[in-house]
Every structure is written in structure tokens, then in C-alpha cells.
Design goal:
The protein is an alpha/beta fold and about 525 residues long. The protein folds into 4 domains: about 130 residues, Nucleotidyltransferase, domain 5 (2-Layer Sandwich), CATH 3.30.420.40; about 130 residues, Rossmann fold, CATH 3.40.50; about 120 residues, no CATH class; about 70 residues. Helices cover about 30% and strands about 25% of the residues. It is built from 13 helices and 24 strands. The strands form 5 sheets. Strands 3-2-1-4-9-10-22-24-23 form a 9-stranded mixed sheet. Strands 11, 12, 13, 16, 19, 20 and 21 form a 7-stranded mixed sheet that branches. A 4-stranded parallel sheet has the order 6-5-7-8. Strand 7, helix 5 and strand 8 form a beta-alpha-beta unit. Helix 1 crosses helix 6. The longest helix is centred in the middle third of the chain and has 31 residues. It is globular. This is Hydantoinase/oxoprolinase family protein.
Length: about 525
């Protein structure tokens, strides 16, 4: 057995799975401290379907905790960013395009240093250890607790980032953490640097959250390993989360899309995940979310780490409804829905109240919304359907029909059909599809590198990289018998000599001893 949990801004969903069978599924309100809500959800699972603690082989958790901390600019560590590239790149220093509120929240310190490489691997300038030591002295005086290092073209040659980290680590207190850009982002110095700074600012919170989750789960007598789901639908262990909390940012919508594919058996479909605050729309291709090809903005900051291609709009069960314009969201009562909504005795008109008044949902006390004008209710519901349909249409890459699957607790807001798209598929256990998606997550590894591929060498190069990807997946905990190559991308780089090609290979497999 395994337990899958997804912590959203409004609800914490949990499932108890035995193979592909859902033994129990629950939805509980998310708590301000996140971890106690998880404990309540696990206890509710036990009440639905009793299980022995020793029968649980793994606990898989998806959480929006880290991205929410960034968006809300809270719980972020004082962070320094060191860019290796002088004399190049000085005209556009780090954090240039960041919102002022975030720069202040991380108490940012910015340093430019010599180093970096050209696109063809030639060094821009040698590393200057004395320069870095002087910068370390300033960091120490400023109370910096986390450092992000980004070197120009480090995905092609990471040696200077590693060397700079070694020099700085020797000069700074032991508690200071380091994030290196070649481990986090892709080609593109500004976006990769931004992702690394975000990761660095969240390192302390990552450690706190993991400690809290472990304490909660262990306190219930469950000793199984704890894993968190990450942006690409695969798992990471506790140590990985401590080092790379940024990898969890899109785990919520990713889990929902994976759960939708699992519960419907569809390898290709559009998924609408309606929660309490937002509706996330994405496409499933080959059973996994389609990945964003370009940079992705997070909290107003452009990044280029692995993220699913998702559109989020401010429509959810807790969304506020304007009684004059009939517009919905983006403001939401969030996890206070059962306190604030009219049908639950509150005084705030929410989308859930409209769904109950329109006969789409059976929640709370319908008498409390009987006074709403039917014409107004119909207008709001039509607007919700229209905005969701528009978002799905924007995600499509062809005019061909595509199945639409609705999941999430807020899916009751939607009609049975959508304009131009037809009937919506509502799978069994749709309300906890995100937790199902977390529970079926696999272990993965991705190789993202630049190789010289000349005539006659392609098969040999790709075979070696596939073996490397499989080996890394196994090292991360995948069962060797289940590892497969999921995806291979080859992108020629015309401005580099010698047949330079960016190659991305992804391998996935079931967690060893925990077959989904």
C-alpha cells in the first residue's frame, strides 16, 4: 500500500492505494501550518479503510507550500547571488527584473565576479579567488544564509561554479547553503540565475517543511519513506527536497493531470483541475503533462527550470463573485470556504454558492442561496464555463477534438458540456485525482546536455546517454526492471561548431518495492 497526499491552498486531499485500486479517499481543509492538515487527512484515511502501519510502503506528497511562500514573499532566507562572467554581463546585473518586494524579502546581496565561458567552451576570464574571498567577507558581515552561484554557460561547463562554491564555503559559516545554477536551470543565464536564487532563498524553508512532514507522519506510527512529487511528475526524496525545493513548484497541477490520466485511462487529453482558489488547465501527452518550452514566470520572475505547460486562472470554489458585474475571482476565501460561503452560514458570495443555487452542486444549505436571482446565477455560471473553455482552447496545438477531463473539488462549478469543446469527462474519484497523481508518481532522471553529433555518431551518442539516464533513475531509487526511456529531444545548435546538439533524455520507473 501507499499513501498519496496533495496539499492545496484550500484543501488537503489524500488517498490510500493498493496497486491501482483506491481503498480510501478524503478531502480535508488545509491548515495554516500545512503539516497538521496532513495528519488529519491520514487519520481520516485510516477511519475509512483500516490499515497496518507496516503495510504502507511509501508516502508521496505534493505541496504548494514553497511556491506560496515565494508568491507571498515570506519565510525566505537572506540570499546572495554571485554571477561569474566579468568583464561580460555587467550591463544587466542579477535581479534586474525582480519585483522590489521579492528583492527586499530575500535581503538580496548581488556580486559580479570574473569567470564564465563562451558558447564554444572558451573561458571568458579566469576565476579570481581573492575577489571571491572579499565578497564572502561582505556576505558574512551582512548575515547571508544562502548563496546562489551562476556562471555564464555553466550547463556546458560547470567547473567554475563548483570551484567558486568551494572557495566561498571555506570562508562562510557551516550553516550557509549553496545552490549552483547548472544543477537547477537550463541554457539562458538570466532565467537560470533567477531559478537558482529562488531555490537558494527557499533552502531553509525546505529543511523546515521536511522536518515537519517527517515528524507528522512518524508521529502517526508510519515509518515508510516520504517522497515529494516534483514539477515533471516524478518523485524526490527528503534530501533532494532540502537541496532543490524549487522543483516542487508545479507539483499540484502535475499531480492532478497525472491523476486524471490514471483514472480515465487517457494518454492524451486536456485536464481542468478546479481547486478552491484557481483552475489549472494543461495537456496530457503520453500520460505525462506537456512541458513548457519557453521560460516560465513565477511570482513575476522569469525562470527556465522544468515546469508543465499550465494556464492558471482565478476561478475556484472559494472565488469571490461580484454581485454587480457577475465576474468571478481572482480573490478567494481559500481554506476558509466552509466558514465564509453563504451555504455554510457565512456572509461572502462565492462561486460555490452560485453552483449550489444553479443546481450544479449539493453542498451546505441551499436555502441560504435561494434568494439569488436565477438570471444572475445563470450569467455567472455561463461566464465560468466560457473562461474555462477559452483557456483550454488556448492550450490546444491543433483544431482536432481532444477529450476534456475535469477533476478537483471545484469541478462542480462546471456544466456537463463546455462551449465548442463538448462533453466533459468526470472520472471516478475526480475530487482526489491530485492525490492519486501523487501516489502513482515514479522515480525519474533527466539528462540535459550538449553533445557533438556528426554523421554516423548519433546512435552511439544517444545510446550512451540513454544508459546514463537509466543508471541515474536507478540510483534515485527506481526498480531497474521498470525503468523506461520516456522522451528524447534533439535540438541542433547552429551557432556552435562540430554538430553541437542539445540532447534531453528522460527516464522513469516505479519506486523500487512500490509498484503502482
Amino acid at each position: 500500500m501507499r499513501i498519496g497526499i496533495d496539499v492545496g491552498g484550500t484543501n488537503t486531499d489524500a488517498v490510500l492505494m493498493d496497486g491501482r485500486t483506491v481503498l480510501a479517499g478524503v478531502k480535508r481543509s488545509t491548515t495554516a501550518d500545512v503539516t497538521s492538515g496532513i495528519g488529519v487527512a491520514i487519520q481520516a484515511l485510516r477511519e475509512q479503510s483500516a490499515f497496518d502501519n507496516d503495510d504502507v510502503r511509501a508516502v508521496m506528497i505534493g505541496t504548494t507550500h514553497f511556491v506560496n511562500a515565494l508568491v507571498q514573499a515570506r519565510d525566505l532566507a537572506p540570499t546572495a547571488v554571485v554571477r561569474l562572467g566579468l568583464p561580460a554581463s555587467a550591463a544587466l546585473p542579477p535581479l534586474t527584473d525582480w519585483p522590489d518586494s521579492l528583492v527586499t524579502a530575500i535581503d538580496a546581496r548581488v556580486y559580479l565576479a570574473h569567470g564564465g565561458h563562451e558558447f564554444d567552451g572558451r573561458p571568458i576570464s579566469p576565476l579570481d579567488p581573492d575577489e571571491l574571498r572579499a565578497q564572502a567577507a561582505d556576505m558574512r558581515a551582512a548575515g547571508v544564509r544562502s548563496v546562489a552561484i551562476a556562471s555564464i554557460f555553466s550547463p556546458l561547463n560547470a567547473e567554475l561554479e563548483a570551484a567558486a562554491a568551494e572557495i566561498l564555503r571555506a570562508e562562510l559559516p557551516e550553516h550557509v547553503t549553496f545552490s549552483l545554477s547548472h544543477e537547477i536551470g537550463r541554457l539562458g543565464i538570466l532565467e537560470r540565475e533567477n531559478a537558482t536564487v529562488i531555490n537558494a532563498a527557499l533552502r531553509e524553508l525546505g529543511a523546515e517543511v521536511i522536518e515537519g512532514l517527517a515528524t507528522t507522519v512518524r508521529g502517526l506510527g508510519i515509518t515508510a519513506p516520504i517522497y515529494l512529487s516534483q514539477n515533471d511528475g516524478t518523485l524526490m526524496d527528503e534530501e533532494f527536497v532540502r537541496r532543490y525545493p524549487v522543483a516542487t513548484f508545479a507539483s499540484g497541477p502535475t499531480n492532478s493531470m497525472r491523476g486524471a490520466a490514471e483514472t480515465t485511462g487517457l494518454a492524451t487529453c486536456a485536464v481542468v483541475d478546479v481547486g478552491g482558489t484557481t483552475a489549472d488547465i494543461g495537456l496530457i501527452e503520453g500520460g505525462f503533462p506537456r512541458e513548457a518550452a519557453a521560460s516560465v514566470a513565477v511570482a513575476g520572475v522569469r525562470t527556465n527550470f522544468r515546469m508543465p505547460d499550465v494556464i492558471s486562472i482565478g476561478i475556484g470554489g472559494g472565488s469571490l463573485v461580484n454581485s454587480e458585474t457577475a465576474e468571478v475571482g481572482p480573490e478567494s476565501v481559500g481554506f476558509r470556504l466552509t466558514e465564509k460561503a453563504l451555504v455554510f452560514g457565512g456572509d461572502v458570495l462565492t462561486a460555490t454558492d452560485i453552483a449550489v443555487a444553479g443546481g450544479r452542486a449539493q453542498l451546505g444549505d441551499p436555502a441560504r442561496v435561494a434568494h439569488l436571482d436565477p438570471a444572475f446565477v445563470a450569467r455567472v455560471l455561463a461566464r465560468i464555463d466560457e473562461r474555462i473553455a477559452e483557456a483550454i482552447d488556448r492550450m490546444r496545438t491543433s483544431p482536432e477534438p481532444i477529450p476534456v477531463v475535469a477533476v478537483g473539488g471545484g469541478a462542480v462549478l462546471l456544466d456537463h458540456t463546455l462551449p465548442l469543446l463538448g462533453e466533459i469527462i468526470r472520472p471516478e474519484n475526480a475530487g482526489v485525482a491530485n492525490a492519486i497523481g501523487a501516489s502513482i508518481s515514479q522515480v525519474g532522471a533527466e539528462i540535459d546536455t550538449v553533445e557533438s553529433i556528426v554523421p554516423g555518431s548519433r546512435d552511439t551518442v544517444l545510446a550512451a546517454l540513454k544508459e546514463r539516464a537509466i543508471a541515474e533513475a536507478v540510483a534515485a531509487g527506481a526498480d531497474p526492471a521498470t525503468v523506461t526511456i520516456l522522451d528524447v529531444d534533439e535540438i541542433p545548435i547552429p551557432y556552435l561548431p562540430g554538430g553541437a546538439t542539445r540532447v534531453r533524455i528522460k527516464a522513469v520507473g516505479d519506486l523500487e518495492g512500490v509498484s503502482a
